[in-house]
Amino acid sequence: MPSIIIQPSLKDAGLEAARPNTNTGNDQVIWTGLYYSPSYYRLLIQFDLSALPADMWITAAVMRLYVAEVTRVDIKGIFTPYRVTALWNEMTVTWNNQPSFDPTVYGSQSVVLGQGWYEWDITALVRGWYMGLYPNYGLLLKSDESTPFETKRIYSKEATAYSMLRPMLEVSYQSVISVNLAQRAFTDIYLSADSGDEWRYSDAFDVSQQSIVTIFAKNDGVNDAVIKLQISPDDSSYVDDSDENTIAPGMMKAMVPARFGRYLRVAYRSANIAESTSLHIWYQARL
User: Fold this and answer.
1) Does 145 lie in the same domain as 230?
2) pTM over 0.85
3) Contact by Cβ (8 Å): 106, 121
């Protein structure tokens, strides 16, 4: 599966409660966590997604940060990413003028002890930026700020002497493809490479962090098509989540999952054997 590595970050800066009017946009290392009250530290970071190809489905997005120094190696810091909801300037942002953020957790937490690479799964967040569900103002990384001496120091994009250790984002994706299978033309869907005249299936969509999901299917061919939704708890065993819907040429059908399952896929076929049809299928979701 193809992937793109974005390194370094577009911008990053630290926020220091004990120095509420100090900007750290040029610092090569940034503290995060609680030293002791009132010394709270947070990290703002944003990645440029303009290099991502158009018309793709993001299967995974992992942020990796290198911890250069820790206050106490025996005290873990648990750091969580949050979606930033306002613009901020790398060279002027401070604790006192820091941007707002959504308290919803938009990725995996990471437990940090000593030096080295650590990673955060921020797939849902990057998908939302890419799909235009919300603006890309970056993310805020912080702990729960309750454990003294948990502070860790992270290399920033300014760490020119350690360019390979600067913040990075790896985005894995599945291209949108068009294929012809058994005289059935299916377009703009993430397809499995099955053969024969039986049901075909899209790649699985992980909907565990989505609150609203809709599948749109349009028949742009000249023969009837049949489509249905299936759900699974483990991306292995699937059950039907909708009736079989016949879509006549020129018609569009919108379908919403009736039950919750971590994984969702689309099953589709021509209504009649050996009669070609052309389907366009869109997956749309909101966090």
Assistant:
1) no
2) no
3) no
pLDDT tens digits along 102-133: 988 878 899 999 999 999 999 989 988 998 88
> What's the pLDDT tens digit per position in 191-214?
333 333 578 887 788 888 777 788
Which residue, 135, 132, 134, 152, is CA-closest to 143?
152
Rounded Cα distance between 50 and 245, Å, is: 38
Q: Are residues 159 and 250 in the same domain?
A: no
Residue 256, both tokens: 């919403």
- Of 144-153, 176-185, 244-253, 272-281, the range with the highest mean pLDDT is 144-153
Q: What is the dihedral of CA 36, 39, 43, 44, to 10 degrees?
A: 150
Joined tokens for residue 68: 């250069």
Is the domain of 97 the same as that of 118?
Answer: yes
* Cβ pair 201, 209 in contact under 8 A: no
138: left (phi over 0), alpha (psi -120 to 50) or beta: left
Do residues 142 and 46 share a domain?
Answer: yes
For tokens 């742009």, what's the residue?
220
3-state secondary structure of 30: strand
Domain total of the chain = 2
Q: Distance from CA of residue 226 to its chain's centroid?
A: 31
Pair 167, 206 in one domain: no
- CATH number for 251: 2.60.120
For 191-201, b where at least 16 C-beta lie within 10 A, e where not — what string?
beeeeeeeebb
> What are the angstrom distances between the C-alpha of 116 and each of 18, 113, 221, 238, 242?
27, 9, 54, 40, 47
CA 266, 267, 271, 272: dihedral to nearest 10 degrees? 140
Same domain, 150 and 207: no
